Amino acid sequence: MAVSRHSYRTVIGYCLIPALAATTFGFDLGETSGFLAMREWLKDFGYYDQKLETYSMKTGDITCYNGVELGFIFIASLLAGYIGSALGRKKGLAICAVSSITGTAIQLIPHFWAMLLGRAIMGMAIGFSGVFAVSYWSEVAPVELRGLIVILYQLFINASQFLGACINEATYDFTSRWAYRAPLLVSWIFPLLLLMLVWIIPESPRTSPVALRCAAQTNIK
């Protein structure tokens, strides 16, 4: 029984590392939605409304701001299956982390088109996170823990969304670009941790080299 409990702790520990990918989605929801009400962000990416005497953003630009990311989430979800089959879940999670770091970095540039490019890359990261994290868990976790572990995705999304909103609350009244840059930089922490730690977890048994060789031999036969 003690061995069983130890094994469960090991599995849960390994599965907490891919859970870091879920924070990509959560932080993005919590932070970027708040940017639309942040004066310094609107100053860089919006326009000055003479009638209201404040900075604002055009409806079409807001649509692009949200729509570009959603479109690339869809594209990444389609590509993730091919990437996972070719490279495995671990490398897929690493690609998710790199995409998140890159997308966030580009959004630090105070230019509308650069921001849209960053949003597009973040969309790729979010799409990859949903596929690679959940598929890794479902393939690694034992049956009796699978349901508990898979719902970690939603737990980490909600927790990081709340944290992102709290960070916005702490920085929104800054009178410089750090009002939105500070939250973006904080959101780097978790993809950086994922990129460093993903290499210590075992590959999914369904995409390990042995499993792939067995599948190839079966197809040949």
Automatic annotation (TrEMBL):
<feature type="transmembrane region" description="Helical">
    <location>
        <begin position="92"/>
        <end position="114"/>
    </location>
</feature>
<dbReference type="InterPro" id="IPR036259">
    <property type="entry name" value="MFS_trans_sf"/>
</dbReference>
<dbReference type="Pfam" id="PF00083">
    <property type="entry name" value="Sugar_tr"/>
</dbReference>
<keyword id="KW-0472">Membrane</keyword>
<protein>
    <recommendedName>
        <fullName>Major facilitator superfamily (MFS) profile domain-containing protein</fullName>
    </recommendedName>
</protein>
<keyword id="KW-1133">Transmembrane helix</keyword>
<feature type="domain" description="Major facilitator superfamily (MFS) profile">
    <location>
        <begin position="14"/>
        <end position="221"/>
    </location>
</feature>
<dbReference type="GO" id="GO:0005351">
    <property type="term" value="F:carbohydrate:proton symporter activity"/>
</dbReference>
<comment type="similarity">
    <text>Belongs to the major facilitator superfamily. Sugar transporter (TC 2.A.1.1) family.</text>
</comment>
<dbReference type="InterPro" id="IPR050360">
    <property type="entry name" value="MFS_Sugar_Transporters"/>
</dbReference>
<feature type="transmembrane region" description="Helical">
    <location>
        <begin position="120"/>
        <end position="138"/>
    </location>
</feature>
<dbReference type="GO" id="GO:0016020">
    <property type="term" value="C:membrane"/>
</dbReference>
<dbReference type="InterPro" id="IPR005828">
    <property type="entry name" value="MFS_sugar_transport-like"/>
</dbReference>
<feature type="transmembrane region" description="Helical">
    <location>
        <begin position="65"/>
        <end position="85"/>
    </location>
</feature>
<feature type="transmembrane region" description="Helical">
    <location>
        <begin position="150"/>
        <end position="172"/>
    </location>
</feature>
<dbReference type="InterPro" id="IPR020846">
    <property type="entry name" value="MFS_dom"/>
</dbReference>
<feature type="transmembrane region" description="Helical">
    <location>
        <begin position="178"/>
        <end position="201"/>
    </location>
</feature>
<keyword id="KW-0812">Transmembrane</keyword>
<dbReference type="InterPro" id="IPR005829">
    <property type="entry name" value="Sugar_transporter_CS"/>
</dbReference>
